[in-house]
Amino acid sequence: MKSLLTTLALASAATAFGCDNPFGYSYIAETTKVGHYEFEQYVTTSVGRDLGAGYDGGYRGYALKSEFEFGLSANEDIQLYLNQFILHSAGRKGFRFDGVDVEYKRMLANPDKADWGRAYTLELGYSQADSGSGELRSRYKFEAKYIFQHNFGEISPWIYVANIGGEIAYTPNISESTFEVKLTQGIAYQLNRNWAVGLECVAVAEWAEFNNFEQSGILAGPMANYRKDNFSVSLTVMSQLTGAPANRGRLNVSEFSPLEARVLASWEF
Question: What are phi and psi for residue 50, nearest 5 degrees?
Answer without folding.
Answer: -110, 115
